[in-house]
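Item description
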Amino acid sequence: MKQLPQAEPHLTESEAEEVFGWILDGQTSEEEIARFLTEMSSRSETAEEIAGAARALRARLVPVAAPDDAVDCCGTGGDGHHTLNVSTAVSLVVAACGVPVAKHGNRAASSKSGAADTLEALGLDMEAAGRTAEKSLTEIGICFLFAKNHHPAMGRIQPIRQRLGVRTIFNLMGPLSNPAGVQSQLIGIARPAYVPIYAAAKAKLGTKRTFIVSGDEGLDELSLAGGNELADVTGNDFEMRRVHAVQVNLPHAPVEAIRGGDAVHNARALEALLMGAPGPYRDAVLFNAAATLIVAGHTQEWEDGAAKAAEALDSGAARDLLAKWIAIAK
């Protein structure tokens, strides 16, 4: 068995790719993995380490064919706020706007309900959704790429993450390893000060356009509560800016206003949203959907993006899309 290095000194990008190759290939013990992940998380991962680890995961994934303009919207998780599933709802809304969405996600690792848990509670058969991913993406413009189906090397890692119950570098690797190879993304991370580091990692891997965002209170998505850090990554470079809900004509609301619960609770809230329920959950979805539509090239303006997202909800298009998706995944 391989002996993992100490968390200090920092690894180079090539060293990180090699070390995470050992981890993913089962060449080191679970105890070593838990120790290494905990130490690395406590001193914060570098852009080089994140990029190298993501390359190792990408090299071992099971790919899926997708349109060139497909996008993804996800958060890294681990923010401790246990909010409703915003990115899952955003995926439905954006797809209903006509942008193909290859939603990459998993079950909860450090939260109460991950994307897979909530979608399953809504009636989407996860196994069938995996088998029909390319079909649903082609026919209705959305699919769910269940991480366990596309990252078999993660099989032994997930129980370790669940036992640790805290954010690790694997939260950061997932969004950078979409099996559809999407080139446009909205990625939320749980640490606002870390946005430029994560953006630098994304820039090392390259992208058509990606927004890396974090709410000031540590929310792993665009927040209504206050300001947000945003890194606009294009190609192999990025620039930083600030964004607030008021810029999108949306009201501020505390994080508690979108506090979630277990999968059933979150699924019921998402159903209500799709039926036209107003409030902070809807506003948070419109905010993040606007950002996703911008990186997709579907609009250039925040207000226009939010208006398109609102129309997808109010017309019933997002609700109908979910019904079609459930019907295909049988």
